[in-house]
Amino acid sequence: MSVPAKEKASSFEPNIVAFVCNWCTYTGADLAGTSRLNMAPNVRIIRLPCTGRIDTLFILKAFERGADGVIVSGCHPADCHYTAGNYHARRRFAVFRELMEFMGVDPQRITFSWVSASEGGKWAEVVNSTTEKVRELGPFVSYPRVAHAQVK
Amino acid sequence: MEELRELAKKLLQEKQVNAVVGYECDRRGVRPAFVDDPAGCDRLVFDHRCVQNLPAYLSPRRTNVAGLGRLAVVVKQCDARAVAGLIRESQLKRENLVLIGVRCGGVAANPNESRELGAETLALRCYGCSGTETAMADYVVGEPKTVPAAGGDRDARLAEIEKMSPEERLALWKEWLSRCTRCHACRQVCPMCFCERCVAEKTQPNWIESSPHIQGNFSWNVTRALHLAGRCVDCGECERACPAQIPLGLLNRKLAKIMSARYGFAVTDDPSTPAPIGSYRLDDGQEFIL
Ligand code: SF4
Ligand code: SF4
Question: Would you call the peptide bond into B205 cis, given omega within 30 degrees of 0 as the criterion?
């Protein structure tokens, strides 16, 4: 491992926004916290009732406001507390992801996961792996933002 | 043409409808026409310049048109998909509408096309279409015609972009979308954009910045395209209406491709086919979810 690369990687702390559902992932994240699991401090959680409530505009807004990565997480299939919210979300995000890719936005910036209320360990993994991945990708300066357009 | 005029006259005289929505000639080609007087039916025309998607007038957002009461509308096969979409989404009742299906034979890209219809002038959406009347039609007019052979691969540009690197793609879209003036013509002309209050106009919170800079433009165009995923009827009117000449059709076409590959959906003039967004299957692909 070359030293400068390591320095560069460690000097950048990514901002990551997580949109999670109230019933599974939020409770899972809570469990991860109360279990004192080791997690990267880069993720800010926004709690919503259901993955079905997570509009793709939330993700775009997060990127506009400077997020380097986004996590979207909710109940496993068949576990949705509103019966089918996650199934609808699954379709919506599948399509969103492919459209973003077509427009040149790196889909690696967005992590989708199912994390249940009992999967504190899985949440810690999602947080840590996403943080690592986004750290490697570097700051998301290529996203169309006014601030960056003006600097140019 | 006589057949169409006679039919329109009959429908109006017998008071089956209050107005007929069709096409008429104007000094700059063909434009939509509302005829409510049997004597005015001779204005009606149908030829390869009739590109406009008339069911766009049927969305409930257009309260002035809804006020006219029962209408007859001239529809090509592709236009009928918009009627089907509006019925599918409970915006329209089939029984309140008389559909005059035309045997179309293809249209040009522009309503002011002065050349004959051929590979060069044929609209992209007609590539591969049979040009026959819709199964939804109450009346069918015109002789069967054949659609001219396509002038190449419709998706050549799409395939080219797909092959580019992500950086090149982003640069391309940034350049295109930075031209957007946020006039919302693409939305106004769309038969399926019928929300009373568009998310692009909401200011509390201001999800999509409304001034024409790249940040809001990107958000707007992604959202417009996504809200039409599995609903777009592929009439191409958004792209034709765009004063900035942004290739919006590429986004719509890409989404149609995704819908077909992932959910086996193709836009249809059958209102009973469920839309792919808003329905789901338990075994939908989730290879991208951890
Ligand atoms: S897509 Fe088909 S029905 Fe529509 S204008 Fe072209 S040939 Fe006619
Ligand atoms: S018609 Fe073109 S310029 Fe107008 S809002 Fe739509 S994309 Fe932007």
Answer: yes
Residues B25 and B94 in one domain: yes
> Nearest residue CA, atom 6 of ligand 2?
B186
The radius of gyration computed from the CA coordinates of chain A, to the nearest angstrom, equals 16
Q: How many separate domains does chain B show? A: 2
Cα angle: A140, vertex B259, B219; to 5 degrees: 35
Kindly report, residue by residue over B255-283, the tens digit of the pLDDT: 999 999 999 888 888 999 888 888 888 88
On whether residue B137 sits in a domain, the answer given is yes
Say yes or no: B136 and B19 in one domain. yes
Mutation choice for B interface testing from A71, A103, A130, A145 by most B CBs within 10 A: A103
Please tell me the number of the ligand nearest to residue B79's CA.
Answer: 1
* CB of residue B187 inside a 6 A radius of ligand 1: no
**Which amino acid is located at A59 in the chain?**
I
Q: Which long-range contacts (CB under 8 A, 24 or more apart) does A4-10 make?
A: A9/A135, A9/A136
**Is there a single domain that holds both residue B123 and residue B6?**
yes
Cα B126 to Cα B81: distance, rounded to the nearest angstrom: 14
**What confidence tens digit (pLDDT) does each residue in B128-144 have?**
888 888 989 999 998 88
